[in-house]
Design a protein that fits this description.
By secondary structure, this protein is of the alpha+beta class. The protein has helices at about 15-30, 55-70, and strands at about 1-10, 35-40, 45-50, 75-80.
Length: about 90
């Protein structure tokens, strides 16, 4: 398994959360190889981890991330990481 880790700066928390629930989560959950997704927030920083069943699937999702970012957030980083353990 591999994870796509996305870091954003939240500029408008209400608009960001609305977009997240209405567009991002439903869209990502339909991606080929999707296993699980977690979106977190602390103050004006957001970090998400999307787990996929293969490195290829994770790379495909990571390439789509910039087009999924609404104006309510600023994309800071996207990376693909290998999942080495889970519980």
């Amino acid at each position: 398994m591999h994870a796509v880790v996305v870091k954003v700066k939240i500029n408008d928390s209400e608009a960001a959360e609305s977009h997240l629930r209405a567009k991002t989560v439903p869209g990502v959950s339909q991606a080929a190889g999707f296993v699980a997704g977690y979106w977190t927030r602390k103050d004006d920083q957001g970090i998400s981890m999307i787990i996929l069943d293969s490195e290829d699937a994770a790379n495909r999702v990571s390439e789509q991330v910039p087009s999924m970012i609404p104006d309510a957030v600023t994309l800071e980083d996207v990376e693909v990481r290998e999942v080495v353990a889970h519980a």
